[in-house]
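Let us work through a complete example step by step.
Step 1: write down the sequence.
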Amino acid sequence: MTTPPTAPSVSRLSYSSTSAYLTCGRLWKFRYVDKIPVATGARMLFGSAFHDVIEAHLRAIAEGRESPPLTEIWDREWARKLKREGDHVDWGGDTPEDLRLTGVRMLETAEVVETIEGISPLVSPYGRMYIEEWVKMKVPGVPVPVVGCIDIISDDGVPGDFKSTSWPWSEEKARSELQPLFYLASLRQQGFPHNEEMRFRHYVFTTSDEPTSQVIETQRDPDEIPFLFDLVREVWRGISAGVFVPNPNTWKCSPDYCEYWGICRGKALEEGG
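Step 2: predict the structure and record it as tokens.
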């Protein structure tokens, strides 16, 4: 007799965990149930440091302080990241100095600087800045909260997300992203008194030799929220039932993109060979 799988203990869901499950159930199990430690990707570390630069700059401006040059903030934040996490990074074909210089090049580019300096966070009458804003949503039929952290809510009430990428985004890619719907549905459920039009902005900064920046705004429809709820419910049902199906057809299933390749498909191919 086959023993039924034991449902994992999950106290909450998030956009990232839901997206991970939809990408590959086995990846979700490795990350959230087995909690297998893996090295941080170099580009992920870079993106986190770049995000911290923007946040530090915006906080200084919103608090009425003089912000140092962006390149100075970058060198400080990059050094902090390396000190804290540098020993656990998979550098691949990159080096810490190469990535430091990439950040400097980006933050010396007029287009990138202009975009960052044009962002202004929403500030409440009590001085609360809407930077790194945590939101929580209740999905009917799912007994745990769905949480997320919005990078920025601008002074016109429109939430946004910072991305550092190799290539510019298309309008189509921005529109296909599921993340904005998570955040907008959460804000709507919480009674956020702005942005009735359900607009969202992606701030996209490229790491190319000639860095660029984009501000891509999309608009979502409240009628999309029931689909989002159905999606989260299905993910919850799969997790609760202990169903973690591997997905070899996703773009992530490769030694270049999946941190668990070596113990999953890579191992199976090795043993099969």
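Step 3: interpret the result. The domain at 120-229 is CATH 3.90.320.10 (Lambda Exonuclease; Chain A).
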